[in-house]
Design brief:
Layout (H helix, E strand, L loop, with lengths): L2 H7 L13 H4 L5 E12 L2 E12 L3 E5 L6 H7 L10 E9 L2 E2 L7 H7 E4 L10 H11 L6 H14 L3 H4 L12 H14 L4 E5 L7 H14 L4 E5 L3 H7 L2 E6 L2 E7 H6 L4 H7 L5
Parallel strand pairs: 3-8, 3-9, 6-7, 7-8
Antiparallel strand pairs: 1-2, 1-4, 4-5, 9-10
Helix pairs in contact: 5-6, 5-8, 6-8, 8-9
């Protein structure tokens, strides 16, 4: 079924329950970048993620979908140890990036967060100039020695985030002076500037209008040439448009993960079917 057909079908469409690919084929991305196995997450005594195992493919977009409160953001934050900043939060299990255990005591979370960047729901530029928003990360990570190198990284990152042409004559103005959609692209440029391998995006378009959303979606499609991208979204249409793989979460459990088209046309599990057809969520 084409993407347009998915969009036209709307929430009332009944999905055929018969899988067209084997379960094994559904769970194998082409080249594993992130491997999570048996991940549990607790907030104090309350368990928010239950025994989640998933492989995330390199240079693909993976969408995390599921009803509010199912644990999408919690699991996303495990991937760059942002949950470390929540004192009551405890993560168990194993998460490896390129085979390296990110919860190993030898792993520096600050370095990890440069490798695994994050873009949040609400654009959050630093209260600094546009230029500084982008140059700050590379500077604190010792990636730039002089002004020419900083200029080069700033321009390259802003170009990669499809923002350069709009801001090249106003780099000294505050990041907060930009429109919401521009601010979100500035935050993407800021994440790119430290040469990450992975970019995590938690509902990056939910505060944006349809035109700014379309810009970000186009950008995500370009960025996947060079980065592994994971996007949390409440929009089925967005998941269908931007992702190659989709993972459906429900009540802290990863119900199923597979090729996006398969998940949206032939999900294996009735809970996935109910969600994508709008029966709950
Ligand atoms: N900082 C926190 N402290 C305590 N409990 C939390 C915290 N963050 C999330 N939770 C709980 O963990 C569960 C999963 O929340 P999470 O924010 O990961 O869901 P979500 O799928 O991202 O939801 P939404 O779609 O609404 O953003 C919820 O029950 C939530 O109340
Ligand atoms: Mg969330």
């Amino acid at each position: 079924m084409s993407e347009n057909a998915i969009l036209r079908a709307g929430p009332s469409r009944v999905v055929a329950p018969v899988p067209i690919v084997s379960a094994a084929a559904q769970t194998q991305p082409h080249r594993v970048n992130i491997a999570a196995s048996h991940v549990d997450v607790f907030y104090a005594a309350k368990q928010a993620i239950v025994d989640v195992s998933i492989d995330i493919g390199e240079h693909q977009v993976t969408a995390f979908i599921g009803p509010s409160g199912c644990g999408k953001s919690t699991f996303l934050r495990c991937l760059n140890r942002m949950n470390d900043t929540i004192p009551i939060c405890r993560v168990t299990g194993r998460i490896a990036i390129d085979g390296e255990d990110i919860y190993d005591p030898g792993m520096d979370p600050v370095q990890l967060r440069a490798r695994v960047g994050m873009v949040f729901q609400k654009p959050n530029p630093f209260p600094k100039a546009i230029y500084e928003n982008v140059a700050y990360g590379p500077r604190i990570h010792g990636m730039i020695g002089n002004r020419a190198e900083a200029d080069e990284i700033v321009e390259r990152s802003l170009r990669a985030a499809a923002l350069w042409d709009e801001v090249k004559d106003r780099l000294d103005e505050p990041g907060t002076s930009l429109s919401g959609g521009q601010q979100q692209r500035l935050c993407i440029a800021r994440a790119i500037a430290v040469s990450p391998e992975v970019i995590l995006m938690d509902e990056p378009c939910s505060a944006l209008d349809p035109i700014a959303t379309a810009r970000i979606e186009e950008l995500i499609d370009e960025l996947r040439q060079n980065y592994t991208i994971i996007i949390v979204t409440h929009s089925m249409q967005q998941a269908a448009r931007v992702s190659q793989r989709t993972a459906f979460f429900h009540l802290g459990v990863l119900v199923e993960a597979g090729d996006t088209e398969t998940i949206f046309t032939n999900p294996r599990d009735g809970r996935t079917q109910d969600y994508i057809t709008g029966r709950f969520g």
